[in-house]
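Sanity check. The docking grid for PRP depends on where the pocket ends up, so I'm generating a full predicted complex first rather than guessing from homology. Inputs follow.
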Amino acid sequence: MTETTRIRLAIPNKGRIAQPIREIVEKSGIHLVETGGRNLIAKTVDPGIEVLFARPIDIPEYVANGAADIGVTGHDMVMERGSVVNELLDLRMGRARLVVAVPEEAEVNAVADLAGAKVATEFPNITRAYFERFGVGVTIVPVGGACEATPHLGIADAIVDLTSTGTTLQAMRMRILGEVLTTTTWVIANPDSLQQKRQKIDEVLLALESVVRAKGQCYIMMNASRDVLPEIEELLPGLGGPTVMDVASHDGLVAVHAVVAEERVYQLITRLKQAGARDILVMSIERMIP
Ligand SMILES: Nc1ncnc2c1ncn2[C@@H]1O[C@H](COP(=O)(O)OP(=O)(O)OP(=O)(O)O)[C@@H](O)[C@H]1O
Ligand SMILES: O=P(O)(O)OC[C@H]1O[C@H](OP(=O)(O)OP(=O)(O)O)[C@H](O)[C@@H]1O
Ligand SMILES: [Mg+2]
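Predicted complex below; grid placement will be based on this.
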């Protein structure tokens, strides 16, 4: 009997990317078998995959030192920890920019004007390296959150923090001086695990990637008479064009199936109807494997 390869996947236990990552993992078919509220390790339906819940900032190190074989966390976290891991797959979520910002009224116009300033951040290592690269001497004030409040509290002159919608910076009346990096959520791997457990890791990657690929796409099905087919096909430039099938016992009637971008569906339905399509069904796609 051959022994099954076992891998441990680390995912965030809290924070804003925790739930979306959990959803991607579930949709990929790696269903978690609940092991109680505060349990930090969960079994999955696959006896070869175990899930470890950890703080996003700790995941790069857990993966680098082998406590987990693969993990999912922000690219910013990997950079901050400087961990030696392989970044394998961009999940294209958790997109944010790490920026240098100052209160609107501050008399500075560029990063170079911050020489001698106190800079509060949850990313002390990235921030230190950034200002060193500019040759600007600053004092780093490490904080664990609510960074935007620090200039108003007199704790810092500037901040290096994440922004996505810009709501927090705007609410705290701060303006951006420079961009340090952009981040998204990545699947990362331990380099040794990648060598020794490649097949199992690839299997997990394929499953996760299929969910990412399906995101924002849906499957549309309709019936139409064959003579209006060219017009309908023109409206559906899908993945390799639509699939067209004869409808049994309905002479001249065809079924047309295609994958389309979710954002197009609303307008598309009206146009398809005008072109003569009927019995239109729109379905969400869970996974797409090319
Ligand atoms: N505003 C944002 N928009 C998009 N992605 C973000 C944003 N803030 C953080 N992220 C991503 O989410 C990751 C985890 O950050 P988050 O702040 O949610 O975790 P945390 O600090 O552990 O939780 P909390 O702030 O609730 O204590 C970050 O490393 C980053 O990649
Ligand atoms: O541009 P926005 O959409 O407003 O997002 C930016 C905010 O999101 C993150 O905060 P988080 O929710 O993690 O809280 P925290 O500051 O306590 O970490 C980040 O630290 C910013 O404060
Ligand atoms: Mg946070």
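Relevant for the grid: The chain has three domains: 7-93+184-214, 96-183, 217-284.
Also worth noting: The pocket of adenosine-5'-triphosphate (ligand 1) is lined by residues 14-17, 55-56, 74, 76-77, 94-96, 145, 162, 164, 183 (CB under 6 Å).
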